[in-house]
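Record DNA polymerase III subunit tau, 345 aa.
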Amino acid sequence: MPCVSVRGHDRALASLRSSAQSGRLPHAFLFVGPEGIGKRTFALTLAQSLLCERNAEGLLEPCGECPGCVQVEAGSHPDLIVTGRPDDKQELPIRVIRDLCAEFGLKPARGVRKVAVVDDVDTMNDEAANAFLKTLEEPPPGAVLILIGTSAEQQLETIVSRCQVVRFDPLPVDELAGLLLEKGIAADADDAAKLAALAEGSVSRAIGLADPDLDRYRRDLIDGLAGERGFDPAEQVQQLLAFSKKAGKETGAQRRRASLMVGELARLFRGVLWQTAGLEPPSADPADRRAIAVLAQRLEPEDVFILADRALEADFHLARNLYMPLVLESLFHDVAKVVNPKARA
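=>
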């Protein structure tokens, strides 16, 4: 896939292409931005262009046909290392970093360089980060490291100072809608526009929301929170756990589905904050806006801040593989105390 097909990130591509054409391409990058907006896809496409055996490096344009490009596409190129936090770990462990550095130090098998893509660096602990420093300071000739996280502020300064930070923005609504149609995720232009508006620039969120079952559960969850009778937190936890298990047997898939719903709660409370401040809520969904209006009338702004923070905290804990039932029980217990009309009486 050529770099020009990485939708919505023209500014980042132009900056990297300028560096490559002047012969000043850095040996280490830190890609930062919201989750699900294409940073990993961009990193792999950049790796493909650097390992392309036909096009000049300065183009940053993989041909997609040479043996190097084909192997990158297939995930079998001997000079490309792709790693990240294991699904069963809360952090990116030092073992993964040590294995990466050892393999990265070997001579290239096909061409003149090795390329490594390291995802989930937000979860890299200090020990793992320090083990990375020597490789960042003295990389093999021509080698390129691409680290992927959400924020430079979450990394050690010693890591950030040795990388060129490349910031990625959420995809524009029109770009995301076009991509959803192109990939067959949306049924038609209207469906694509609706999903793109709800997804707020995130491809992964749009894919999740395209699931009809998830869309129905999301609607029931939000309407239940805004209902006059309130909701039973224990029942809501069991419903979300059961719904998450429908994502498949893999715990990673179940956590991603639960995380998506917890993220929807955080966005709902953000909309309530906007409403209480006299601003138009960001959600274009009429049903969302009705629920937001009800909650804005019921809650004080300080309470909404607390709820939004609790949802973000729960999402963080889910991403770190904390025990999911306990995370959800704590979250919905706190939400019920603030949201339920009886609890506030």
